[in-house]
Specification:
Helices cover 45% and strands 16% of the residues. With 240 residues, the protein is α/β, with parallel strands linked by helices. It has a 7-stranded parallel beta sheet, with helices on both faces.
Length: 240
């Protein structure tokens, strides 16, 4: 049984990958969750290279059954869940007037329902961890919740929901030692960003690295923000 374990969704690339690597360096056994086995296995090899421990779980976290199975697999392997990072999401650019209802539902499920499903699935496990710190849940929100690009209306609505889910869960978690925080970054150098905007329109000087967000997540878990719960923490790159 591992001493401390973490689940990171969307762990194959970007913020998820950077977070998984940081957690592994901190001694966490990390469950790498996503829909693409090849990218997850690449991250797992990086963790092995640093003598860390991980497991790959291929799952679509927008589906409740898949999330339930994901948590069951982690508990069977390691016996506990100490940290959950809800990072998986999608952000297609579609105007509200052109949005098909099925796509609206898909965006909400990928970004908001997935965070609820995983929170619901780990809650009882974290309670059983015991002590004053049953667990930490970090939900990845977005600056779009305050100021969305045109075309990101559905994504922005989902991320506002993530912020409120984090606050509501934190209030309920106070009594059982579960902390919940939302981290809402601005532009981050990821595949998702570059599908929306190219480097000519948004240069590197205005964009954070995935590891910048991962560092903030680790601050919530173990660092200077380890006493926070219920907050939405907005991140953006300062002009230099």
């Amino acid at each position: 049984m591992a001493n401390r374990t973490a689940i990171v969704t969307g762990a194959g690339t970007g913020i998820g990958r950077a977070t998984a690597l940081r957690l592994a360096r901190q001694g966490f056994a990390v469950a790498l969750v996503g829909r693409t086995a090849a990218t997850l296995e690449w991250v797992a090899r990086e963790i092995v290279a640093m003598r860390g421990e991980s497991m790959v779980v291929v799952a679509d976290v927008s589906k409740w059954d898949a999330v339930e199975g994901m948590v069951r697999a982690v508990v069977q392997r390691w016996g506990r869940v100490d940290v959950l990072v809800n990072n998986a999401g999608m952000a297609p650019s579609v105007a509200v007037a052109e949005m098909e209802p099925a796509l609206w539902r898909e965006i909400l499920d990928a970004n908001l329902s997935s965070a609820f499903y995983a929170t619901r699935a780990v809650w009882g496990v974290m309670q059983k961890n015991g002590g004053v710190a049953g667990g930490v849940i970090v939900n990845i929100s977005s600056m779009a919740a305050k100021d969305p690009f045109p075309g990101l209306g559905a994504y922005a609505v989902a991320k506002i929901g993530v912020n409120m889910l984090s606050l509501a869960s934190a209030r309920e978690g106070d009594a059982v030692g579960i902390r919940v925080v939302a981290i809402a970054p601005g532009a981050v150098e990821t595949q998702m960003l570059r599908k929306l905007v190219d480097e000519k329109s948004l240069g590197a000087e205005h964009v954070m690295a995935p590891d910048d967000v991962a560092a903030a997540i680790l601050d919530v878990v173990d660092g200077s923000l380890r006493h926070c719960s219920g907050e939405t923490i907005y991140l953006h790159r300062r002009a230099t």
